[in-house]
Design a protein that fits this description.
Layout lengths: L1 H7 L5 E3 L12 E7 L12 H17 L2 E6 L3 H12 L8 E7 L1 E5 L4 E5 L16 E2 H9 L5 E7 L8 E4 H4 L12 H11 L4 E6 L11 H13 L4 E3 H8 L8 E4 L10 E3 L12 H14 L2 H10 L6 H27 L2 H10 L6 H10 L23 E4 L2 E4 L3 E4 L2 E4 L5 H11 L13 H5 L3 H6 L1 H4 L10 H14 L6 E4 L2 E4 L6 E2 L3 H8 L17 H4 L33 E7 L8 E2 L10 E4 L15 E4 L8 E2 L3 E3 L2
Parallel strand pairs: 2-3, 2-4, 4-8, 8-10, 16-22, 21-25
Antiparallel strand pairs: 1-3, 5-6, 6-7, 9-12, 10-12, 11-13, 14-17, 15-16, 17-26, 18-19, 20-26, 21-23, 23-24
Helix pairs in contact: 2-7, 7-8, 9-10, 10-11, 11-12, 12-13
Length: about 650
């Protein structure tokens, strides 16, 4: 087997899009994508890089005619060898080359130097000088020698801001005036000529001199720019800067990396951009419509409409968008009527929505109120039992789709995320399981630790009524057992080192399963984009997220925002919440009280955080991390069986 691998090649290169020449381009567009999923021991694996890079590559090939090459899990020598091979290619005057790197990065502060970590890169402890890594300085020098006049380099790696002559995208993005499409083939060609009249050696990075999340928001922004916001037009780097400007913590950066740059640009030209008659790929159109129908959300139908503005199913998509938007307005009006809780408010709702499903309930509530000073009506979907559990919400079980069919039994979920006060009572009493920022039982890591984000959080990190952060999945299950003992319940978990098993018949506290979490976030499985709302314009009322103007830069005190209709707070935003399940692909068959895969490498995280954009806060969005990993926006809440 080893001989066969040697005969094949030192490393594998996968090429796609060879038939994808773009009729709208006078030159040829190339993309070479390097990604690493598996590293040397003690470097965390990054399995998501393959999916993210291939999604971008598919978009480039399908919509923009790029010839795309993938270089999976390259060693340092492999990267240099590939760049050397590019040096020997014959590029024409209008050809373009995009180089995309997705892997770990590292920064040596004393040397003021950043590095890419290839598949054979050793850990800093075993390679203090970084000889097995590829420095950003060397990378820029190597790429500058490629005989292509228009090169764009994209670095999705930690500390990638050490590359090039940088400028934050949040500063540059303000200059982009809007979605301006070329009006015809002549203008389209003119835009290309103006962009490519001179040499350009440009770059974008996922962030500055900081760590970046394992799940790349930078890659998401690439996909959004290519696939949604800027279809059917010529996309220059200024439009990319505008798209990247929505990403925060960290904010992407961009600039030039070679003195040979003298005013040129890099452009992405959609296949139909220079044609007065849009070209529609019927197979792709049908597949995209089927995806939108299967998803069934407003965002899904909007995405289809944006991707296929002249598609066969556009009228149906527009109809669905109108229906969902109308339903959202009704939900918002109903929530407002309940908030005001007056006869006038319910009268107005009944007048505006005479056929509403809430008609009988609105009439009932109207008959119970006498004026504006009447106490608010108890949420009709919140149910208690004779065994009421303070601080928890009882959820009656039921069926829902996520997207496979799931049936759940009754259970409780804590109304709020576990706070700093609650968690530190446990850590201090057991003298163990301290959060990462308080590992030594002091404020050590807040003041002098290596994680810059902890120091930035300041009082938001230590205020007693803020959610706890910097704790691992193992820390969370240990807290569950301790809390169960404190309240006289049976412990759910048996913990031996990193091995944890659950007794699902125990009546103690535990982490919610992934299915329970989503069922609760969606108010017993409703079709809600975010916890409490499907309207992004109202999300700032329900969630602490990045870029929504919600009034909080970091974490917020638990319960600061509106609850969903079950009375659960912060299910979207504030902090990511650990769930019990190992992360894995969803099953295709119906499931009864699922607990996830039997084994795995990562545990599920749900809900998004203050550090994430709205799309990451969706009820259906999934993330994951190693059970020992701790981060500045990882927290949790409790669940308990209803027995």
């Amino acid at each position: 087997m080893m001989k066969r691998r040697i005969l094949l090649s030192v490393f594998s290169i996968l090429v796609v899009g060879l038939q994808a020449q773009n009729p709208a381009r006078s030159g040829t567009d190339h993309a070479v994508c390097f990604y690493v999923t598996t590293f040397q021991p003690d470097w965390p694996a990054l399995p998501e890089t393959k999916t993210e890079v291939e999604a971008i590559g598919a978009q480039l090939a399908d919509d923009y005619g790029f010839t795309v090459e993938y270089v999976p899990n390259p060693k340092k020598a492999d990267i240099k060898s590939k760049i050397l091979e590019l040096n020997r290619r014959n590029f024409r005057e209008k050809d373009q080359l995009l180089l995309f790197f997705s892997m770990h990065g590292h920064f040596i502060t004393a040397a003021d130097r950043g590095y890419l970590i290839p598949a054979d890169g050793k850990t800093p402890a075993n390679d203090p000088l970084g000889d097995s890594w590829l420095s950003y300085d060397d990378l820029g020098a190597y790429v500058s020698q490629i005989p292509c006049r228009h090169v764009l380099l994209s670095l999705d790696a930690c500390y990638s801001g050490a590359f090039g002559i940088r400028q934050s995208t949040t500063e540059r993005s303000k200059s982009y005036p809007g979605d301006v499409k070329p009006s015809g083939s002549q203008e389209c060609k003119k835009m290309q000529e103006e962009a490519l009249f001179a040499d350009s050696y440009l770059y974008f990075t996922a962030g500055g001199l900081t760590r970046t999340p394992a799940r790349s928001r930078f890659a998401d922004a690439w996909l959004e720019a290519l696939g949604e916001g800027w279809l059917k037009k010529v996309i220059a780097t200024n439009e990319l800067r505008y798209a990247f400007g929505s990403v925060r913590n960290p904010a992407p950066e961009g600039g030039i990396f070679s003195r040979k740059t003298n005013g040129g640009d890099f452009v992405f030209v959609h296949k139909s951009a220079c044609s007065n008659t849009p070209v529609i790929d019927k197979t792709a159109d049908k597949a995209a419509w089927q995806t939108a129908k299967n998803t069934g959300t407003l965002a899904a139908y909007r995405k289809y409409a944006a991707s296929f503005p002249n598609g066969e199913f556009r009228p149906l998509a527009d109809q669905k968008i109108r229906e969902i938007e109308a339903a959202q307005k009704e939900e918002i009006a109903w929530e407002e009527a309940k908030r005001l809780n007056t006869r006038e408010a319910y009268d107005q709702f009944l007048q505006d929505y005479p056929g509403s499903d809430y008609k009988e309930l609105a009439s009932l509530y109207r008959s119970q109120v006498a004026g504006k000073n009447t106490p608010a009506v108890k949420e009709e979907t919140t149910k208690t039992t004779t065994e009421d559990l303070p601080g928890f919400v009882f959820l009656q079980g039921g069926d829902f789709k996520m997207p496979h069919s799931v049936t759940l039994s009754d259970f409780y979920v804590s109304r709020y995320e576990i706070t700093v006060k609650e968690y530190l009572e446990f850590a201090n009493s057991t003298n163990s399981n301290f959060p990462e920022w308080k590992e030594k039982g002091s404020s050590y890591n807040i003041q002098t630790g290596s994680n810059n984000h902890y120091k930035k959080l300041g009082s938001a990190l230590t205020n007693s009524n803020h959610p706890i952060v910097g704790i691992s999945w193992l820390n969370a299950v240990a807290y569950c057992n301790w809390r169960s003992e404190q309240d006289g319940f049976q412990k759910v978990y048996s913990i031996s080192g990193s091995n944890v098993t659950a007794n699902w018949n125990a009546n103690g506290y535990r982490l919610p399963t992934e299915a329970e979490w989503e069922y609760a976030a969606r108010s017993r499985g409703k079709d809600e984009e975010w916890a409490g709302t499907s309207s992004e314009s109202s999300l700032s009322q329900y969630a602490n997220a990045s870029g929504t103007g919600d009034g909080y830069e970091y974490t917020a005190p638990v319960g600061s925002f509106k609850a969903n209709s079950l009375g659960l707070f912060d299910m979207s935003g504030n902090v990511w919440e650990w769930c019990w399940d190992w992360y894995g692909t969803y099953p295709t068959s119906s499931q009864n009280n699922p607990h996830g895969p039997d084994s795995g490498s990562y545990r599920v995280l749900r809900g998004g955080s203050w550090n994430d954009i709205p799309s990451d806060l969706r009820c259906a969005n999934r993330s994951y991390s190693g059970p020992v990993n701790r981060y500045f926006d990882y927290g949790f809440r409790l669940a308990r069986a209803a027995r």
